Amino acid sequence: MEGMNEGERKDYIMKLLTVFELRPKLRVRLSAEVRHMPIVVRPEDINLSEEKMKKDILYNVGLLKDAQDAVLTVIEGRLGYVLEGVEDKVRDIRDREYLHNLIKRLVGTEDVLGFIRKELGLI
Q: Residue 116: exposed, middle, or buried by beta-carbon count in 10 A (0-12, 13-18, 19+)?
């Protein structure tokens, strides 16, 4: 993909994603490879039905990452920093519903530090 402009790279990636729809594990590997490329692929760029989109691995990985980022943002907002080891613990959580509930509980707790230590197993 060297020597391609942004539009050409995006078009190429979109074609790869279409082909890789048949091989979900390869879609995940592709997403890891293109993560640092200066391109933006929006959900509307991917020609999948809403039902297929919700089942799409890359789509769900993106939603999971957004939920993890939100937890870390709330922690940083409440404490002014993120404790060492917390980001790794949050990134290990793969349940979006749990992450959303964690956000609600973080916002509502008085003892944020104690809650984080107890909930994430940090001592």
A: buried
Contact between residue 42 and residue 68 where contact means Cβ atoms under 8 Å apart: no
Q: Which helix (H) or strand (E) holds 8?
A: helix 6-20
CB atoms within 10 A of CB 79: 14
Question: What pLDDT score was predicted for residue 1?
Answer: 59
Q: What is the pTM of this model?
A: 0.62
The CA–CA distances, whole Å, from 19 to 56, 66, 82, 118 equal 13, 25, 39, 44
**How far does Cα 24 stand from its chain's mean position?**
17
120's tokens:
């994430």
d(CA 58, CA 50): 14
Mean pLDDT (whole number) for 95-105: 94
Q: Are residues 56 and 23 in contact, defined by beta-carbon separation less than 8 angstroms? A: no
